[in-house]
Write a structure and sequence with these properties.
elongated; 10 helices; alpha/beta; 46% helix; six-stranded mixed β-sheet
Length: 237
C-alpha cells in the first residue's frame, strides 16, 4: 500500500498539471496575433490575460491598419508599457529597445523572439534606424518610446527624440500616438509590472507625415504623448 505522503504528492502533481493545462488553454484562447512561433503566440495570450485581468487594461483596440507599415509611439512611464501596447495590438510590434535593456540578463531571448531592434544610443544608432526602415519597407509595425527612457508628467520637460519622425517621413508611414496612464508603479521598471494597476491607453488619431513639417510633427507628437488635448484636436480636424 502506498503511503499517505506518496498519495498526497501524486494528487498535488496531478493538480499542478491540470492547472498548467488550463492555463495553456486560456493562453491559446486569449492569443490574438500570429508571431510565427507557437510558443510566442502562447506568451502573447499570457500577456493579454496579465494586462487585461491583473492590470485591468481598458480594451481600446489599437487603431492600426490591417496591412502596411505603421509606427506606434507612446509615453513611457514604467516597465509595463510595452506589455500594454502588445496586449492592445492585433499585429506584431517590432520594438526599438535600448541595447542595455535588450541585453538585460534573462530577457534577450524574449526580445530576440519578438523581433526587438536593439539601439546603441552612444555608438552607431543609425544601425537601428536602418533595421527599422527595413521592417517598415516590409510592411511591419515599429514601436518606440520617443522620450527615450521613463519620463513622468511630473518630471522636468524633456524634448522627445526625432527617430519616429524621421522614420515616418522617410517611408511615408503614419504615426499612431498613444497615451498611457493609470500605472500604480509609475516611475519604476519592476514596480510597474508587479504592482496592480488600472491601466489606461488613449489612442490618438493617425498622423500622416505629408500633412506636416518636421518641427510641426515633433510638436504634435510630443503634445499628444504628454496629454495635450489641443494637439489631439488639431489632428482630428
Amino acid at each position: 500500500m502506498p503511503s499517505i505522503a506518496v498519495v498526497v504528492s501524486f494528487l498535488l502533481i496531478a493538480l499542478l498539471l491540470w492547472q498548467l493545462f488550463r492555463l495553456h488553454q486560456a493562453c491559446r484562447r486569449a492569443n490574438r496575433v500570429d508571431w510565427g512561433r507557437g510558443w510566442v503566440n502562447l506568451l502573447d495570450g499570457l500577456n493579454r490575460l496579465f494586462c487585461y485581468r491583473y492590470h485591468r487594461l481598458n480594451r481600446i483596440g489599437m487603431r492600426l491598419p490591417k496591412t502596411g507599415p505603421a509606427i506606434v509611439v507612446a509615453n513611457h512611464v514604467s516597465g509595463l508599457d510595452p506589455l500594454l501596447l502588445v496586449a492592445s495590438a492585433r499585429r506584431p510590434l517590432r520594438f526599438i529597445i535600448a541595447r542595455e535593456e535588450y541585453q538585460r540578463f534573462g530577457l534577450t531571448w524574449l526580445f530576440r523572439a519578438i523581433g526587438g531592434i536593439p539601439v546603441d544610443r552612444e555608438k552607431r544608432p543609425e544601425q537601428a534606424l536602418r533595421e527599422a526602415l527595413r521592417c517598415l519597407r516590409n510592411g511591419e509595425v515599429v514601436a518606440l518610446f520617443p522620450h527615450g527612457r521613463i519620463h513622468l508628467d511630473s518630471d522636468p520637460p524633456r524634448r522627445i527624440k526625432a527617430g519616429a519622425i524621421r522614420l515616418s517621413q522617410i517611408i511615408g508611414a503614419p504615426i499612431f500616438p498613444h497615451r498611457i496612464s493609470g500605472i500604480h508603479g509609475a516611475g519604476g521598471v519592476i514596480g510597474g509590472v508587479l504592482l496592480r494597476s488600472r491601466a489606461r491607453i488613449r489612442a490618438g488619431s493617425a498622423i500622416y507625415p505629408e500633412e506636416w513639417g518636421r518641427d510641426q510633427l515633433q510638436t504634435l507628437v510630443q503634445g499628444i504623448l504628454e496629454g495635450d488635448e489641443d494637439q489631439e484636436d488639431s489632428v482630428a480636424i
